[in-house]
Amino acid sequence: MSESVGGRRAVVLLSGGLDSSTVAAIARAEGFDVHALTLRYGQVHAREVEAAQAVARAVGAVQHIEIDLDLRAIAVSALTGASAVPKDRARDDQIPATYVPARNTIFLSLALAWAESLGAADVFIGVNALDYSGYPDCRPEYIAAFEHLARLATRAGVEGAPLTIHAPLIHMTKAEIIRRGVELGVDFGLTHSCYDPRPDGGPCGHCDSCILRAKGFTEAGLPDPLLA
Question: Mean pLDDT across the chain, nearest whole number?
Fold first, then answer.
């Protein structure tokens, strides 16, 4: 656990991936004390939890909580083992098999509960609406709707201290996210993006997330430290 630096508390949803790690660094740079929240939800790529632990330490999180919430019985997805993770998929407008039903709604609800308990008015999430896999809960209108819900459904909101949902990456390309992370000193070698890692924990290189990550580093003109 790190020392408080700014006095303003923020809950940051931290998966250990490239996006959420950059968001944690953004929150820290904006003067927030980072209270990181990571979920073990039955994901087949649970290697990301180890990455989240490393990133939380590196970013200087004041607190890092991991919650076990197994969604496999109720959320059918390739990421919860219901089917194979698609590889080398042609991009289209269809919602892919890696979509986890209601995942961001569940995660944001837990972040909201913790934020209100901490007396924090800010929650950060690393959703992105440009270079992403087609998930409906990564869109700007979704974030705006959840923020409206949070202001209606909490004591803090009713008493005039509404919570803000920050999605600073939502209109950025993957390359822009990587460049911003580098500016903030994010060690992307600590992160994990792959949906279906190899037995040694390394990236498969063929799932949607690996392909988007590779595209981002290529367009940013930078090497991916995981592949160095």
Answer: 93
One CATH from 1.25.40.530, 3.30.70.2660, 3.30.2420.10, 3.40.50.620 for 8-223: 3.40.50.620
The angle at the Cα of 141, spanning 135 to 142, to the nearest 5 degrees, equals 55
**C-alpha torsion sign, points 192, 196, 171, 11:** negative
Number of C-beta neighbours around residue 118 at 10 A? 15
Query: How far is the C-alpha of 44 from the C-alpha of 188, rounded, in Å?
Result: 21
User: Is a pLDDT exceeding 70 seen at residue 133?
Assistant: no
Residues 62, 2 contacting (CB under 8 angstroms)? yes
Please list the residues that pair with 9 across neighbouring strands: 33
What residues have CB less than 8 Å from 200, skipping those under 6 apart?
none
Coil, strand or helix: which one is 128?
coil
- Give me the pLDDT at residue 105, please: 97
Distance of CA 182 to the CA centre of its chain: 17
DSSP letters, 92-122, are: -SSPPTT--TTHHHHHHHHHHHHHHHHT--E
The reported pTM is 0.95
Residue 94 — pLDDT band, cuts 50, 70, 90? confident
Place of tokens 């986890």: 100
What's the CA gap between 70 and 78, in Å, rounded? 14
